[in-house]
Amino acid sequence: MSRSPFVFSCDNKRYHTLNYYSRTRFGHKIYKAVIDCGLTCPNIDGSKGTGGCIFCDGGSGYFTHPYADISGQLILERERICKKYGDSAKFVAYFQANTNTYAPIDTLRQYYKAALTFPNVCGISIGTRGDCLSDETIDLLSEINSETALTVELGMQTCHDPTIKLINRCCTHDEFLEGFYKLKSAGIRTCLHIINGLPYETEEMMIQTAYELARLVPEAVKIQMLHVIKGTELEKWYSEGRFRLLDRDKYIDIVVNQLELLPPQTVIERITGDGDKQKLIAPDWTRDKIAVLGGIDKRLAELDTWQGKLYK
């Protein structure tokens, strides 16, 4: 019986984990030091829209220290990471909050270079949108890519334009694809982010998004359940009963089906969300990340299936 090459790998998973990738790429586990540059987005500042995506509360991770400069934030992140994992821990500088290519080139170069020269940093990850990748920006990213292990994380969320419009993304799927293909042409490692459970999307629509991911063959993917976060437009929708959230079992089934479709070499950098529990309104089951991960592993084993089993 054929099996995925990642079954029973270093962490005994039936999908290509970030841990497996890190250990084969760097020789050890890699952590993420989260940075908030204080940048905005074109669907926040009015250039394409206002209010941001309906699920967004500002884009900053709950570990970030946006009142400090890049080096100051990395010092604090290094203290956090090394306190837990030891002084020799290596990490990726993760530009997470909002759109981290949405600034003048000289400003971006200053930010990226400050992270690049920081001790313990072995790579850079930059979160952005497909419509914020000018040719000049691609040139800068190519420069950074020649100096370190670079990943650009693109928010795809879904391949369905009606949903994209509904969530106030202000970036069509074609615009996303244009940015993605620029990164591919430049040889830059790209991680695509999707969200399961977006309002009014059916299971079939989420599977179609996985088919689109498979067609694109990204180097990495993040899969997340939709979170209703305090203070967002989505919280208002949820309180008014305008949509229903997936339950845990349905989410697990959808993820398993999506994994079967994805290329086996695509790294699964995230398979469930890990948000700020103090701001989380729903779904409550996402608070128990271990149970979700265990449920996915159990379902894969029950079905004797794995990432890439149905990939063509």
From TrEMBL:
GO terms for molecular function: 4 iron, 4 sulfur cluster binding; catalytic activity; metal ion binding. Residues 25-264 form the Radical SAM core domain. Pfam families: Radical_SAM (PF04055), Radical_SAM_C (PF16199). This is Radical SAM core domain-containing protein. SUPFAM superfamilies: Radical SAM enzymes. Its cofactor is [4Fe-4S] cluster. The keyword Protein biosynthesis does not apply. PROSITE patterns: RADICAL_SAM (PS51918). Gene3D superfamilies: Aldolase class I (3.20.20.70). NCBIfam families: TIGR01212 family radical SAM protein. Keywords: 4Fe-4S, Iron, Iron-sulfur, Metal-binding, S-adenosyl-L-methionine.
